[in-house]
Prior knowledge:
Blueprint: H1 4-15, E1 21-25, E2 28-32, H2 66-78, E3 83-86, E4 89-93, H3 104-110, H4 122-136, E5 140-146, H5 152-166, H6 171-191, E6 192-193, E7 201-202, E8 205-212, E9 218-226, H7 231-234, H8 244-252, H9 255-261, H10 271-274, H11 286-300, H12 304-321, E10 325-327, E11 333-335, H13 338-344, H14 353-383, E12 394-400, H15 412-438, H16 450-457, H17 463-472, H18 479-490, E13 496-498, H19 504-508, E14 514-519, E15 522-527, H20 531-536, H21 541-548, H22 553-558, H23 561-565, H24 573-589, E16 592-599, H25 612-621, H26 624-632, E17 637-640, H27 641-648, H28 663-674, E18 681-683, E19 687-690, H29 693-709, H30 720-755, H31 763-783, H32 801-822, H33 825-841, H34 848-851, H35 868-874, E20 879-888, E21 895-903, E22 906-911, E23 914-920, E24 926-930, E25 936-940, E26 952-955, H36 959-969, E27 976-979, E28 982-988, E29 991-1000, E30 1004-1007, E31 1013-1018
Magnesium ion (MG) is lined by residues 152-153, 201-202, 400.
Amino acid sequence: MYDYQLEDKLQLRKRIAPEYVHVIHHGISFCAVGSDGVRITMESALTARDRVGVQDFVLLENFTSEAAFIENLRKRFKENLIYTYIGSVLVSVNPYKDLEIYTKNHMERYRGVNFYEVSPHIYAVADNSYRSMRTERRDQCILISGESGAGKTEASKKILQYYAITCPASDQVQTVKDRLLQSNPVLEAFGNAKTLRNDNSSRFGKYMDIQFDFKGAPVGGHILNYLLEKSRVVHQNHGERNFHIFYQLIEGGEEDLLRRLGLEKNPQQYQYLVKGNCPKVSSINDRSDWKVVRKALTVIGFNDDEVEELLNIIASVLHLGNIQFGGEDSGIAYITTDTQIKYLSRLISPLNLEQAASARDALSKAVYGRTFTWLVNKINDSLAFKDESYKNPSVIGLLDIYGFEVFQHNRFSTFCTCLTVVLSSEMAIKDAVMFHAVSQWEPVQYFNNKIICDLVEEKFKGIISILDEECLRPGDASDITFLEKLEDTVGGHAHLTTHKLADGKTRKVMGREEFRLLHYAGEVNYNVNGFLDKNNDLLFRNLKEVMCMSENTILTQCFDRVELKDNKRPETAATQFKNSLAKLMEILMSKEPSYVRCIKPNDAKQAGRFDEVLIRHQVKYLGLMENLRVRRAGFAYRRRYEIFLQRYKSLCPETWPTWEGKQVDGVSTLVKHLGYKPEEYKLGRSKIFIRFPKTLFATEDALETRKHSLGNSPTLCPSPAVMIQSWWKGILARRRAQRKRQAVDSIRRFIKGFIYRHKERCPENEYFLDYVRYSFLIKLRKNLPKTVLDKSWPTPPAALVEASELLRKMNMQNMVWRYCKKINPEWKHQLEQKMVASEIFKDKKDNYPQSVPKLFVGTRLNGEEINPKVLQSLGNEKMKYAVPVTKYDRKGYKARNRQLLLTSNSAFIVEEGKLKQRIDYASLKGISVSSLSDGVFVLHVPTEDNKQKGDVVLQSDHIIETLTKVAICADKIHSININQGSITFTVGHGKEGTIDFTSGSELLVAKAKNGHLSVTAPRLNSR
Ligand SMILES: Nc1ncnc2c1ncn2[C@@H]1O[C@H](COP(=O)(O)OP(=O)(O)O)[C@@H](O)[C@H]1O
Ligand SMILES: [Mg+2]
């Protein structure tokens, strides 16, 4: 037999790459090599494109192979499939081009749909968190990490948009949604900049809470900001820019505004904007961005005055940057730029040139940094959830962790950000490990980040403590003394080394001013240059004082006098960051986390380029292999019992179609039936865990085969509709089967009856005989003759011959009776005459049949056609019939036109007005006609009667009618002789005449040579 199923599979194989088989478990679609190398697709909703590689790394057979991991990423990336899961972690590769996957339709597709039912997407993560928050009433957070330019900020924006579009809303909520969305361009203007890696790189860490009310509508938000890269205000590397807002203001600001701020429309004029030598970027339109930001400020709730004050500060920073110092011989700096004096004259204190510049820059940084914090607070005010009556909104947090870039030489900021990443990946792994602990699996080996965290954070002995101590201690502390201190204190730590402590090989790749940390994912070198300064982040007291006196209300809020009174040393940058990070961790730990890991495919911001080296690097630093390994930790797949059972129950007779017992027992029965070996799976509290993808694939294969045998049902999980449908189908099938059984019985009885049909009635043949009788009667009823002339009658079965005959007669009588009942007197008279005609002529005279259908008329001549004299001489005698006739003379047979009149007593031959001859019926001896079709007849009269001149030879065109009338009137029905060949008649006085009849082509009446009257009658019948 031809295997259509195989054909199907082969067709599919041609369509999609051959080496993979796609398997979808409860909606999740993934692919793997099937045992027969044949590709099987299981869900038509997913397009072939969605099934490239595996959608979940967990299903990679070779899950420890980094090459296989990257190959899977590459394959999907090539098809623009930028999202892939590791369990519940979403890995995203920056496409560097607009993909059509963020439309409203896409949002709808992911809304309320189970995580695994659709192809991986950032919306799936967003929706999953939202639903968990709603159904489990547990706060959620989504942690987004990755290198700068990997797409973190884009991802967080996509999530925000998803909520803004898909969540329920009311009017009041709409403003919150708007503000949430509009806070982005403002924060990006002040906190983002073009770097070498990303034209719109966030230069601060952001954690944003979105608050939802009990209906699930977003009602508020809160932003925490971390570690703005303030140094960018005063210095940019080549090819990079300052924060966007500076360029936006200069390019987009109205003339009036710029004049008020004392700014020129040329960024090249400002020292703080020229360092990177890159004021313009093709991918950035500062002018239109300005409009967006300006509008967003209004939406968020800034009034015009506040905007002006804010921009005043931005402008002041630019002016500040343009202050130049000159060195006096004494070494004390003075300001050389006149125009700026009015802004800063009072700030000069006895500083040397370098110190003065540094103080200026420190001020700029402080002003910008604090303004940024103020801005965030202002946004928070506008996003704050104001409904007092509703105390505990549910929360989804979004963490866009500051880009962690590993450079050849990493500095202080990287060191700080690396902390974040270390902590967040630790959370992810802890999460996975916790899962295993809960489900009591065998212990999982994983790199414990705690050892690094301790190395960095620990009190007194940690790197941060050592750094702080160096910053605080009197004497000439420097970056180098810090490094030496490190070597002294933690030099022996397994995860730290320095140039001095390293072995020869490592030493070659380390600078003298570097220390190296061994993270779980690899080694990172940090250059200590600038660590102390950055950590100190000092601002001279008198500068602070001046700022406190500012008339700018924003600045007075940023520089609080209380700060001046506080003589305690401010916290160092690293400590501040460590503390805020600790706080953040606390926040995150109280929530259920989801993870998005962003990967940058190349350094050139190019679409379609997959730089394998760069990616391998990120896979390593994001700890993705570690993540996968822990996730797999022996088990590739886990699913809740009810879902597993629902999907595969058709594969086991005991569980199909429904399993009545406990779910876990059902699953256990099912997998035993499927032949799972004990080491291949485990049953947890609410889930089944399957160790190898191939086990699952085999199960999917079986399901696919089963589906075909089940009639290709699209789903094996019966919905109520399907159940009703199957019940009804069952009923119909049972009815059909019953009918079939009955039919078989009938046929069997029939055949038996047929065999016994000639036997006496017995149980074997009684059904058959009854059937035959019944069917004869039914057939008869349908085929009864409709008229008396129809003599057909069905042949009866032997048992019904007598009955049939009786029925036939009854039917005939019935028809006759009905016919007679319908008849009228006129017609009755007609028929009576016809009866007489029939009696006389039927089968005797040739032209009789032609006369049958012609009705007899009352008379052939009416009153006007008969001479009145004749009528007068008839006197009282009532005329019954009159017809024109031809009379042949007795001698010579001359033909004369006459009329024949019939009265009750006599027949008259009339010529014009004369009654030529009267024949009383009583004296009429007989009437002779031929058997042929002619109309000649002879009225025989007695010769002894003197009044009579002899027999009368007449001819009528209506011979049958005429003679019938004569026979009736004269009551001579039996006196009509029908003759063959010839008729003899008396001419009178004993003489006789003869008429000879022959058949010919036409009527001819003439005297023959032999003296006879010869009549040739046309042949009408075949006789
Ligand atoms: N999903 C995406 N689709 C299209 N382009 C993207 C996507 N994610 C990132 N990009 C591009 O990459 C750039 C850098 O992304 P961004 O989110 O700013 O990186 P990060 O925040 O990780 O530094 C964006 O400006 C955008 O051009
Ligand atoms: Mg960013």
